[in-house]
Specification:
Blueprint (H helix, E strand, L loop, with lengths): L2 H14 L6 E5 L6 H9 L11 H17 L6 E6 L3 E7 L5 E8 L6 H16 L10 H17 L6 E8 L5 E9 L5 E7 L7 H8 L11 H14 L7 E8 L5 E9 L5 E8 L6 H8 L9 H13 L3 E11 L3 E10 L3 E10 L3 E10 L8 E9 L3 E12 L4 E13 L3 E17 L4 E17 L11 E13 L10 E11 L9 E13 L12 E13 L42 E14 L2 E13 L11 E12 L2 E9 L10 E7 L4
Parallel strand pairs: 1-3, 4-6, 7-9, 10-12
Antiparallel strand pairs: 2-3, 5-6, 8-9, 11-12, 13-14, 14-15, 15-16, 16-17, 17-18, 18-19, 19-20, 20-21, 21-22, 22-23, 23-24, 24-25, 25-26, 26-27, 27-28
Helix pairs in contact: 4-5
C-alpha cells in the first residue's frame, strides 16, 4: 500500500469515526474460531473497537501471527486488507509442530531425567500445556534452553552453554530436538576466612560461614555470604553491623576463596517501645502480643517474628516497626499499626451423602474487646443433624508460642448407628511448631453430657444410653506435605492418647489410642510448569479403646466406625460390620485400615484414581480376626479446585460376608487421606 493512500485512510478514519463501525473478518482460520482469536487478541488490547486506524490493524495482524506461533504454528502468515469499515485478515496457518523426540548430548553432571524434567517443565510453562505432547514453540524451547543453562550455572558450571538442533520428521508435523550442552569447568567455593579485628562472636560466625566451603560457586554466592553474615550479627545485637565479601581466585582452577570482613559496631539493646495507630486494641494487649521487652538484646529475627505475630492475628491491615537511637546503647522501637476489619461472617451451603443438604454459618471476631483474642461462633444445620459451638482462642498464651482456647458446644446428632444430644465444653492448649506446616501438639480437656440417646440396634443392653464423659487427650502431628489442600508429596503423621475417668467429672473409665500415617509419593518431579503429576498415596490408621474400672463396654457414640468416602469405600457411611441382624452398625472398640491409591492426571485438574482399601473393625481388640478383614478395590475421578478436590469413587467388596453390599458409590470433598 502506497504512503498517500495510507495517509488518506488514516485521515478519513479520524474525521468520520470509521473505527467505531469497523468489522474484522478472519479467513483461513481452520484451527481456531473467531471468538477464540478475538479472545487471544484482547490480551494485547487489540480489538475491533480499538482499531481506529490502519496502524491498529497492522498491530492486530502482528499479534495474531504471534498467537499462532505460540500455539505451535511456526510458519503461520497473517496478511490483511484494510478499508474504513472492514478489515479482512487472511491467515495461512501452516502445520502445527510437536516435539516427537527429545535427545540430550553432554551435560552428564546432571542426571538425564533431571535434564529432561527441567527442559520439558520450562516448555510446558511457556506454552501453558501441563499435559500431553510437547508443542514446538521457538520462544518456548529457547526459554527452556536458558532454564537448563541456568541449572548448570547453579551447579557451578559458570561457562555452560546450551544449543538446540532440530530435525523435521517425515510427516512435517513433528520434529526431533537435540539439546547439546557444553558444561565447561566446574567452579566451587574454597576457603571462607574472616578478616579484620576479632570480636566475641568471631569463632561462631566463622563456623556459620564454613558451610559455604566446598559448595558449587554461583555468581550470587558472595552476596548470599554477606547476607548470612549480616543476619548472624543482627541476631546477636549488632544493629549497625556492616559486612564486605571479596571473592578471590583460589589455588586451583575454578576455585574461589571468600574473604569476609565484618564490622560489628556497637551491641544494642531495646529501649522504649511506643505504639501508634491503634483504635480498638488495648496497648497492653498489643505490647503483650509483640513480645519484645525493654532491655532485651536487639535480635533481628526475634523482631521479625514479633511483627509476623501481629500480622497473623488478622486484626491489622498494616504493621510497621521502626527504630530510633536512644541514650547509651539503646534503640527505641516505634510500633505503628493500622487496624483492619476484625469481624467477618461466612456461610456455606452443600450436600453430602449422609447429611444430605446442609448449611454452615461462621462469625469471627479477630480482636475480641481489643484483646487480640479470637471469638468464633459456628452454626450447623442439615437434614440429619444440627448444632453450634463457640470458641475463644488466645494466641501467644502466657507470653509464649502456646495458644489457649475455651469452647462450648451443643449438637443433636443423627448417625447410622445412633441419635443423641450432646452438650459440653473443652479447654486446651496447643502449640504450632511450624508456620508453613500443620505441625505441633495439643492437650485438651473435654466434658460433655450425652442424653436422649437412641441406638439403632436393640442388641446393646449393657451400655449406658445417657452418660457424662470427662476426658483428657494429648495429640501430636507432624505434617510435611507440600500442600494441605492438594498434597502430592511428603507425609503426615499424627496420633492421640486420651483417658476418661470419674476424677475428670465423668461416668466412664477407658483409654483411647489412635494413630494414622499418610505418605504421598510423586512419580514425577513437581515444578511450576508441571504442578499436577502422577502420585501414590499410602495411608494406615489404627485405633483401640480399653475400658477399665466400672466400665465393661464402651457406649455406641464413643466407638470407632468404618465405611464411607474417607475409609473403606465399598461400604456406606459407618456401614462396615459388626452389625446386628437387621443390618444396623454397632461400631467397634478396635480397628485398623490401610489404603493405597494411584492418581494419574488425565486433563486440566482431572485425575483418574485406582485404589484398594483394606479394613477391619472388631467389637474388642481381642476379637479382631484376620478373616474378617475386608478388601475393596475401586476406581475414581478427582477434580482439583482451589478449595480442594472433588471426588467420585466406586469400590466393590472383593470378599463378601453376610450383609455386605456388592459395593458402593462415594462422593467426597478434599483429600481422601
Amino acid at each position: 500500500m502506497k504512503f498517500p493512500r495510507v495517509l488518506a485512510l488514516v485521515l478519513l478514519g479520524h474525521f468520520f469515526g470509521a473505527a467505531e463501525g469497523t468489522e474484522w473478518v478472519f479467513e483461513g482460520n481452520g484451527r481456531f474460531s473467531r471468538d477464540r482469536i478475538l479472545q487471544a487478541l484482547s490480551r494485547f488490547d487489540a480489538t475491533p473497537a480499538s482499531a481506529n486506524d490502519i496502524t491498529a490493524a497492522d498491530d492486530a495482524a502482528f499479534f495474531l501471527r504471534e498467537f499462532y506461533r505460540s500455539q505451535g504454528f511456526p510458519d503461520a502468515v497473517v496478511t490483511y486488507d484494510y478499508s474504513a469499515s472492514r478489515v479482512v485478515f487472511s491467515i495461512a496457518e501452516g502445520d502445527r509442530l510437536w516435539i516427537r523426540k527429545l535427545t540430550f548430548e553432554g551435560g552428564t553432571s546432571l542426571p538425564g531425567d533431571r535434564r529432561e524434567r527441567i527442559f520439558t517443565a520450562a516448555v510446558r510453562q511457556a506454552t501453558r500445556m501441563p499435559f500431553g505432547r510437547l508443542r514446538y514453540v521457538a520462544s518456548a524451547v529457547e526459554q527452556a534452553a536458558e532454564s537448563l543453562r541456568q541449572a548448570f550455572v547453579n551447579e557451578g558450571f559458570l561457562e555452560a552453554s546450551v544449543s538446540l538442533f532440530d530435525q523435521p520428521a517425515a510427516d512435517f508435523q513433528s520434529l526431533d530436538l537435540t539439546v547439546v550442552i557444553e558444561e565447561g569447568i566446574p567452579h566451587r567455593i574454597g576457603r571462607v576466612r574472616l578478616a579484620g579485628p576479632a570480636f566475641e562472636e568471631s569463632e561462631a560466625l566463622a563456623q556459620t560461614l564454613a558451610t559455604f566451603e566446598g559448595q558449587p560457586f554461583r555468581p550470587s554466592d558472595p552476596s548470599l555470604c554477606r547476607s548470612r553474615a549480616l543476619d548472624f550479627l543482627r541476631e546477636h545485637g549488632f544493629f549497625y553491623a556492616a559486612v564486605s565479601v571479596e571473592s578471590l581466585p583460589g589455588r586451583e582452577p575454578g576455585v574461589r576463596d571468600f574473604v569476609v570482613t565484618p564490622t560489628p559496631g556497637r551491641r544494642m539493646h531495646i529501649g522504649d517501645v511506643r505504639t501508634s495507630g491503634r483504635r480498638r486494641t488495648a496497648e497492653r494487649s498489643l505490647l503483650r502480643r509483640f513480645g519484645i521487652r525493654r532491655g532485651a538484646l536487639y535480635n533481628a529475627s526475634a523482631l521479625d517474628a514479633a511483627e509476623r505475630r501481629l500480622w497473623f492475628s488478622g486484626a491489622f491491615s498494616s504493621v510497621d516497626v521502626a527504630f530510633r537511637d536512644a541514650p547509651g546503647d539503646a534503640l527505641d522501637v516505634d510500633l505503628r499499626v493500622e487496624e483492619g476489619d476484625r469481624k467477618s461472617f461466612a456461610t456455606t451451603l452443600g450436600y453430602s451423602q449422609w447429611y444430605l443438604g446442609f448449611a454452615n454459618a461462621t462469625y469471627t471476631d479477630r480482636n475480641l474487646l481489643g484483646t487480640l483474642n479470637r471469638l468464633k461462633l459456628t452454626g450447623f444445620v442439615s437434614q440429619k443433624s444440627y448444632g453450634g459451638e463457640a470458641e475463644v482462642a488466645a494466641p501467644w498464651f502466657l507470653g509464649s508460642e502456646l495458644t489457649g482456647s475455651a469452647e462450648a458446644f451443643a449438637f443433636r446428632k443423627e448417625l447410622p448407628a445412633f441419635e443423641a444430644t450432646e452438650f459440653g465444653a473443652r479447654i486446651g492448649i496447643r502449640q504450632k511448631l511450624n508456620e508453613r506446616f500443620r505441625t505441633g501438639w495439643g492437650l485438651v480437656y473435654e466434658w460433655k453430657s450425652v442424653a436422649n440417646t437412641v441406638v439403632a440396634s436393640d442388641t446393646e443392653p449393657d451400655t449406658p444410653r445417657d452418660y457424662r464423659l470427662g476426658r483428657l487427650t494429648f495429640h501430636q502431628a507432624l505434617d510435611r506435605r507440600n500442600d494441605p489442600l492438594i498434597p502430592m508429596s511428603g507425609y503426615d503423621l499424627r496420633y492421640e492418647v486420651g483417658v476418661a475417668a470419674p476424677p475428670l467429672l465423668g461416668d466412664l473409665t477407658f483409654l483411647k489410642a489412635a494413630a494414622q500415617a499418610t505418605w504421598y509419593l510423586p512419580l514425577q518431579k513437581i515444578s511450576p510448569g508441571r504442578p499436577f503429576v502422577p502420585f501414590l498415596t499410602f495411608h494406615h490408621g489404627v485405633g483401640a479403646l480399653f475400658p477399665f474400672g466400672n466400665t465393661t463396654a464402651i457406649p455406641v457414640p464413643e466407638r470407632f466406625f468404618l465405611g464411607g468416602p474417607d475409609s473403606v469405600r465399598s461400604f456406606a457411611f459407618d456401614g462396615m460390620a459388626p452389625r446386628d441382624r437387621k443390618g444396623n452398625p454397632l461400631g467397634g472398640e478396635a480397628f485398623f485400615q490401610a489404603n493405597v491409591e494411584l492418581q494419574w492426571p488425565v486433563g486440566r485438574g482431572f485425575f483418574l484414581a485406582v485404589f484398594t482399601d483394606v479394613g477391619n473393625l472388631a467389637p474388642r481388640l481381642e476379637d479382631m480376626e484376620f478373616c474378617e478383614t475386608r478388601i475393596a478395590p475401586g476406581v475414581g475421578l478427582r477434580f482439583f479446585t482451589p478449595l480442594g478436590a472433588l471426588r467420585v469413587d466406586y469400590a466393590c467388596n472383593l470378599v463378601r460376608r453376610d450383609g455386605d453390599p456388592l459395593g458402593a458409590w462415594q462422593l467426597g470433598l478434599g483429600v481422601t487421606f
